[in-house]
Amino acid sequence: MKNFKIYFYLNVIKPIWMIVGLTFLFNCSQAVFNSPQITEYYPQNIILFIGDGMGVSQVTALKTVEGVIALEKFKQLGLITTWADTNYITDSAAAGTALATGYKTRNRAISVSLSNEPLKTVLEYAEERGKWTGLITTKSITDATPASFAAHVDNRNNQIEIAEQLVQSGVEVAIGGGLSYFLSASQEGGRRTDEVDLIAEIEKTHIFIRNPEELSDLPDTQGVFGLLAMNNLPKATERSLSLGEMTEKALRILSNNQNGFFLMVEGAQIDPAGHENNYEYLIGELIEFDKAVGVGLAFAESDRNTLVIVTADHETGGFAIAGGSVKKRMIDKPLFASGDHTATMVPLFAYGPQSELFEGIHDNTFVGKAMIELINR
Ligand code: MG
Ligand code: ZN
Fold first, then answer.
1. What is the count of structural domains for the chain?
2. Whether residue 178 is found in the same domain as residue 317
3. Do 293 and 254 share a domain, yes or no?
4. Fewer CB near the terminus (10 Å): N or C of the chain?
5. How far is the CA of 303 from the centre of ligand 1 (A)?
6. 154 lies in which domain range?
7. Which of 35, 57, 92, 180 is catalytic?
8. Predicted confidence band of residue 15 (pLDDT cuts 50, 70, 90)
9. Whole-angstrom distance, CA of residue 46 vs CA of residue 306
10. Neighbours of 80 (CB within 10 A)
């Protein structure tokens, strides 16, 4: 009887328990392998690329025409909802505020709440942490998207005030258009209504340039303020300095800081191309934006300490593709359902430490909140 019990244990009970145990362990290990690899490794640098008005159809057109795009190297993907607090269809001010601060506001508001209280931005947190910061755009640097990161005004039209706040923001690199908002009333082309000389202010701390050709020859060791056009820069196909070249220069400067950096790069003219329902304009801007993303990605790949995020503030134009050819790399039936922004979700791409956080469907405020949390680690 006793032997039978031992026999029964060794040959029946024990194997059953071993199978149960092994199955359990196997499932646990599977759960570990299947769950996203949330690392305890936080990025020192963040590069945020914003394609203003870049929806999923825009990315599809880019892929069709280019064949291989930088955006497809990203493995962590998501979608974000873009509506504003009091507007279903957002503008770039409310959406920029959401991305920069993690809070929703009303259209036209630049990083202020519904009651006009300033909302602290990821760029301001980065400055506070001793990081260097940069803003690059292909429109005016005082326009809603870059302004949302470094200014607080109740109306985006107040670009004279935005210019002043940008100069005071502590940003190490600023490259874009909008020179006229920095020139005093008596200076040629100046749009200011006062005699404040913001260029003189900038030159106390930064190298100031207004000629795009000068950028590449500047030393990498000093901050730069490049105001390369009175208002917006020329279209991508007509620019003497590409968004990628601006990004490369900014990274060379910002990477000199041991505490890391935050850089926002905006493909700003994807949006006006959508407003104009101009497919040729649109695709030119998208191609150039993707090349700049490639520059950021290459930096992050070798640096291993940089989180790259690419997203949009909203879709523009209700762009749809009704015909084209992969072989001929062309779209022959571009359609536009709107001359304005739409509410469709926009894509989100992430690469680098903590990029897993951005997978899935989120609200645009999540991007701002997550970046601020990562900057403050
Ligand atoms: Mg913009
Ligand atoms: Zn727009």
1. 2
2. yes
3. yes
4. N
5. 28
6. 43-375
7. 92
8. low
9. 6
10. 24
Alpha helix locations (H) across 130-242? 144-150, 159-168, 198-203
* Edge-to-edge order in the sheet of strand 132-140: 207-209, 224-227, 173-177, 132-140, 261-267, 45-51, 306-311, 346-351, 76-81, 360-363
Both tokens assigned to 99: 């991305």
- Is there a single domain that holds both residue 143 and residue 73? yes
Is the pTM higher than 0.85? yes
Same domain, 30 and 56: no
Tell how far the Cα of 195 is from the centroid of ligand 2, in angstroms: 31
Query: In angstroms, rounded to a whole number, what is the distance separating the alpha carbons of residues 279 and 57?
Result: 12
Find the ligand nearest to 271 CA.
Answer: 2
Q: Is 92 a catalytic residue?
A: yes
Question: Which residue in this structure is represented by tokens 């405020």?
Answer: 365
Spatial separation of the C-alpha atoms in residues 162 and 274, rounded to whole Å: 25
234-281: per-residue pLDDT in tens?
Answer: 999 999 999 999 999 999 999 999 999 999 999 999 999 999 999 999
Place of tokens 């430490």: 353
Question: How far does the centroid of ligand 1 lie from the alpha carbon of residue 365, in Å?
Answer: 17
Distance CA 368, CA 105 (A): 13
Which ligand has the nearest atom to the CA of 135?
1
Q: Do 208 and 86 fall into the same domain?
A: yes
Residue recorded with tokens 């990274």: 251
From ligand 1's centre to the CA of 273, what distance in Å?
A: 12
Are 23 and 82 part of one and the same domain? no
For ligand 2, the distance from its centroid to the CA atom of residue 90, given in whole angstroms, is 9
Ligand with the closest atom to the CA of 95: 1
* Same domain as 346, residue 266: yes
CA 333 to centroid of ligand 1, rounded, Å: 26
- Ligand lying nearest the CA atom of residue 139: 1
Q: Are residues 153 and 176 in the same domain?
A: yes
